[in-house]
Amino acid sequence: MVRDRVVDLFRRALARGAEEGRWPAAxxxxxxxxxxxxxxxxxxxxxxxxxxxxxxxxxxxxxxxxVDAVRAVDEAGEVASLEIAGPGxxxxxxxxxxxxxxxxxxxxxxxAWGRTRVGEGKKVNVEYVSANPTGPMHVGHGRNAVTGxxxxxxxxxxxxxxxxxxxxxxxxAQVQTLARSVHLRYQELFGREVAFPPKAYPxxxxxxxxxxxxxEVGDRYLDAPEAQWLAPFRDRAVRHVLxxxxxxxxxxxxxxxxxxxEKALYESGTVERFLKELEAKxxxxxxxxxxxxxxxxxxxxxxxxxxxxxxxxxxxxSDDLTLFRSSQFGDExxxxxxxxxxxxxxxxxxxxxxxxxxxxxxxxxxxxxADHGGxxxxxxxxxxxxxxxxxDLHVVLIQMVNLTRGGEAVxxxxxxxxxxxxxxxxxxxxxxxxxxxxxxxxADAQLDFxxxxxxxxxxxxxxxxxxYGHARLAAIARKAAEAGVPAPEFDxxxxxxxxxxxxxxxxxxxxxxxxxxxxxxxxxEPHRIAFWLQETIAAFHSYYTxxxxxxxxxIGPDPRKTSARLYLxxxxxxxxxxxLAILGVAAPDRMExxxxxxxxxxx
Length: 603
Prior knowledge:
Blueprint: H1 2-19, E1 32-33, E2 43-45, H2 47-55, H3 59-73, E3 79-85, E4 89-94, H4 96-109, E5 123-127, H5 139-157, E6 161-168, H6 173-188, H7 204-217, H8 226-251, E7 258-261, H9 262-267, H10 270-280, E8 284-287, H11 303-313, E9 321-324, E10 335-338, H12 346-360, E11 363-369, H13 376-385, E12 393-398, E13 401-405, E14 408-409, H14 422-429, H15 431-438, E15 447-450, H16 451-455, H17 462-482, H18 492-495, H19 501-523, H20 527-550, H21 559-582
Helix pairs in contact: 1-3, 2-3, 4-19, 4-21, 5-19, 6-7, 6-8, 7-8, 10-12, 14-15, 17-20, 17-21, 19-20, 19-21, 20-21
């Protein structure tokens, strides 16, 4: 990475200055950032500002010393200029050949360009989707799935060891409701009339489960008491729904390394061992939920939180509960981990699950719906209480998806009430469009997903726009080969002809791609890659169109310029393919032109 070269130069300069007694030997942790305004140089370094106190000198005085040291260690002449700015920033402008050499490295790295080692040696568990196994995946689950998968891919590209995990909530009241819904359908198949309660699951998939059970067990459970049929009906229904969920995920090219079961947490004794761990550490006590806060802000949890905790525990505020001392570790109130009857709460199982996950990984990433935002402090508190750091857990919150068709809201799905199933969307617009459009906004911002736009083969469709750019670059390479132009190899003298501002911009974009990927990974923000791809291909389309107008086409009369431009296109094509791969989107070599309706070959 070009940025790494700047970091290395400054580290060597700081070491040299320390040897000369200009500042302490211990090198400070400094940042190397890209200025928003390119007039301020290629990079801005704050080393002087972080070193000034230890050096006992004003930052600008230290900055001058660092500038002198950088010039002394820059034997290769990689730095074109150094400028001290503001309170002590050092603006760095690199020699043009440094960027051109990065172009050579990008082509040499090929499909690996963009991979870094910033996460090397760190194992990260990424848990996402974890939809309740009570029905197929809806569109909201799809956004969670694509975001989580893209986060996992980013972390892997940045050198982390990644484990992808799905947590199956197969123990509580919801799967019991599913089992009862299956039994009602089971009775219907024997000709009985039944009434469905409001919270039942009426979907067609429930009939499929009931029919399979009828074929397997006949009328054995028709008049049996619930205690006999609830567990087998639940387990069979969960298996069936998980099979549907796996198929939905496969449709958008998502799979998991680990499928964890809430029921297995109980059966293995993990929840019980976790409770004993809390007790041994003095982290639980028997007491009552605090009263809600008064309007004047008196002590106690917020009314919503207290009500939620009481509902979860199935108690009133007067009941004695086993409470976890989460307020000692940053949470708003202490949380119940045992109900009044002594059975664990859902929260207890959930933090036991995170306790178990943390033993298997160095860091945890949860991708959750935005409505779980209030749940985050208690999870971090649990990790703190158990001797870990709350920063070991990072939560990505996913906002809602507003599905539209031509600007009009899509209110009804084909198969169930007001739910639009993910598979319906994928079947209509395709995997690539589904994945890319889910990543065109920050995860914590609401997303408008227009089905008509996603299908449109025009440049206003964001995924088509990027893919078409890749196809156009592939077409340029084909046209060059058909014209007998030799395949481009790196030639520094020829590359120096790439002096147009548009060419310089594309070169810097290609060179900075590893930094973009590393930054997106460390921020858990895959939308940055989608943004970068759209901005970069927009820059290329502009360059390409301008060249056609001015006669400065990629394949022109000057062999050296043609070779250099073909090499630039080769590198750009590779980096676009790599960016799309991170998002799990294909990079086609041929697509129909939105203008001519012919293949994208108009070089």
